[in-house]
Write a structure and sequence with these properties.
The protein contains two helices and four strands. By secondary structure, it is α+β, with helices and mostly antiparallel strands. It has a four-stranded antiparallel beta sheet. The relative contact order is 0.21.
């Protein structure tokens, strides 16, 4: 049994609630981990654009946004 198979690594994923699928309307703004993300749709796949904690651009897929958690309102 290696570390990736340990029960402790799987239990954290089971205890965190999974967010519903993010919206699909372009230019929609959602919040994730205290930062705003805007849905951009172009010639390729849609992506959620925001900034990381260092102010650099950060692109997320819809699946990544679901794993991180999101809401329409900023957490206080």
């Amino acid at each position: 049994m290696n570390e990736s198979d340990s029960p402790a690594s799987g239990s954290a994923a089971q205890t965190q609630p999974i967010s519903p699928a993010p919206p699909t309307t372009p230019c929609t703004v959602v919040w994730s981990q205290g930062r705003p993300f805007v849905l951009e749709s172009g010639a390729g796949r849609p992506r959620w654009m925001g900034m990381d904690r260092h102010g650099r651009p950060q692109a997320l897929t819809g699946d990544e946004l679901c794993r991180r958690g999101w809401s329409y309102r900023r957490a206080r």
